Amino acid sequence: MCLAIPGKVVEIRSQEGLQMARVQFGGVTRDACLDYVPETQIGDYVLVHVGFAISRVDEEEARRTYEALAELDQLGELEIPEIEESRRSGA
Amino acid sequence: MKYLDEYRDGDIAAKLVERIRRVQTRPWVIMEVCGGQTHSIVKNGIDHLLPKGIELVHGPGCPVCVTPLEMIDKAHAIARCPDVIFGSFGDMLRVPGSDGDLFSIKSQGGDVRVVYSPLDCLKIAKANPDKQVVFFAIGFETTAPANAMLAWQARQMGLKNVSLLVSHVLVPPAIEAVLSSPQNRVQGFLGPGHVCAVVGYTEYEPLAARFHVPIVVTGFEPLDILEGVLMLVEQLEQGRAEVENQYSRVLDRAGNRPAQELIAKVFEVSDRKWRGVGMIPQSGFRLREEFRELDAEARFSVEAIDTMEPEVCIAGEILQGIKKPHDCPAFGTECTPQRPLGATMVSAEGACAAYYAYGRHLKDADLVTLGNGR
Ligand code: SF4
């Protein structure tokens, strides 16, 4: 129910007093209301829930978080966990 | 960066699991509040991936599951009226009331329509001036901005044939109810990322302090959830009880101001009943006085019909993290997504339906032949 999906804003227009956008999610494009993220520009990523953008995805922050997670690599070399093997065979 | 695939990387997931294993010295019980997280956890097998001793229990954060039975019955009573077009999110269609579901009302000739956005009701109302359009406005804080906008726009546009059946619930009072229960086992919470995208997380800080329980506001992708668990385990091991934000690419402490402003104009906090849990004071929204003319309950004078949950159903305890779906004798036998007895089997985000969908009702032997792995 609280599912919200990030999509890319490809078009912005005004309709019945509301800021509406076409938002691309992978291969699908849908309408979303932008009134709650009024500073949104074409090309931005927004998080859409039941036809409303509720947040703009901060690209810099997304990259930072991801890179920090990817760096766990270097921190993880102390020992190779035997637990992973057993999990993998179960997966 | 599409913000989806990156956060599903299996190698990084394995690193995170290993990290958690190293940090953890004792068993911990963690509740994910949101049904979307439950779905992601069960779908990706994250609970099985975690080191032994980290137990995930599933929280009350599925609005479809907690919408009280009498509200469902009120919806059905309204949807059966001849001049009504009843709009609903798709998830509500198969939720059993005391007598059938919205699907069966539709098949008996009721005009029940699934909408993508609450705003669709405005179009429907304009196109059908001789009909009453009623929207089943359920949801948590995440959905409140959308439902508030429907009420706001209906009034702006002077549409007299739109009303809302409001059954809105709030997360912090539910967390408080879980923590106040004498049976509570939960020691840390994965906070609901999309709820907090709307309202921020200032309201969670007094909860964390009062109950000395860490809360990490977390996203929905596998890496989000694993990082959220890691942050929680770190806090638990260090004896900290803070509110932290794992989902910083989407939200900050304050949340979405314009959304909060419109919610406050349209809704006010009220007591709400939760299916399976009972009355929780100040745990939901109702329309403000200025918008009461849009209240479908008043417009259709639907009396509460006395309703009984099937006795076997333990959805209430599941929603509070006390039990798991396979503790229910009906799980996967009498109760399946095709013939649900309780709401946690209906919604894809309900713990029972998630367990069922990903084969958790099968014996290990069946799973081997399925080649499913778990
Ligand atoms: S399996 Fe069905 S009957 Fe049992 S708790 Fe879940 S919803 Fe209720």
Characteristic terms for this protein:
heterodimer, A: 91 residues, alpha+beta, SH3 type barrels, 3 helices, B: 374 residues, alpha/beta, Rossmann fold, five-stranded parallel β-sheet, 17 helices, disordered C terminus, binds iron/sulfur cluster
Quick structural summary:
By secondary structure, chain A is α+β, with helices and mostly antiparallel strands.
Number of strands of chain B: 11
Provide the domain count of chain A.
1
Helix content of chain A: 25-40%
Put simply, the count of helices of chain A is 3
User: Which descriptor suits the 3D outline of chain B?
Assistant: globular
What's the rounded overall pLDDT mean of chain A? 80
Q: What's the CATH class of the domain at 66-170 and 255-299 in chain B, please?
A: Alpha Beta
Ligands, deduplicated: iron/sulfur cluster
CATH class of chain A: Mainly Beta
H-E string of chain B: HEHHEHHEHEHEHEHEHHEHEHEEHHHH
| Helical percentage of chain B | 25-40%
Q: Compute the gyration radius of chain B: what is it?
A: 21 Å
Q: What multimeric state do the chains show?
A: heterodimer
What pair of chains forms the biggest interface? A-B, 44 and 66 residues
| Main beta-sheet annotation of chain B | 6 strands, mixed
Span between N and C termini of chain A? Answer: 28 Å
Beta-strand residue percentage of chain A? 35-45%
How does this structure look, described?
The complex is a heterodimer of chains A (91) and B (374). Chain A is of the alpha+beta class and 91 residues long. Chain A has a single domain (5-76), classed as Roll (SH3 type barrels), CATH 2.30.30. Chain A contains three helices and five strands; from the N terminus they run E-E-E-E-E-H-H-H. A five-stranded antiparallel sheet of chain A has the order 3-2-1-4-5, with no helix packed on it. The longest helix of chain A has 12 residues, at 59-70. With 374 residues, chain B is α/β, with parallel strands linked by helices. Chain B has a domain at 66-170 and 255-299: HypD, alpha/beta domain 2 (Rossmann fold, 3-Layer(aba) Sandwich). Chain B is 39% helix and 19% strand. In chain B, the strands form two sheets. Chain B has a six-stranded mixed sheet with strand order 4-3-5-6-11-10, with helices on both faces. A five-stranded parallel sheet of chain B has the order 2-1-7-8-9. In chain B, strand 5 (132-139), helix 8 (144-156) and strand 6 (162-169) form a beta-alpha-beta unit. Chains A and B meet through strand 3, strand 4, strand 5, helix 1 and helix 2 of A and helix 1, helix 8, helix 10 and helix 13 of B. The complex binds iron/sulfur cluster. Residues 312-315, 318, 325, 328, 330-331, 335, 341-342, 344-345, 352 of chain B line the site of iron/sulfur cluster (SF4).
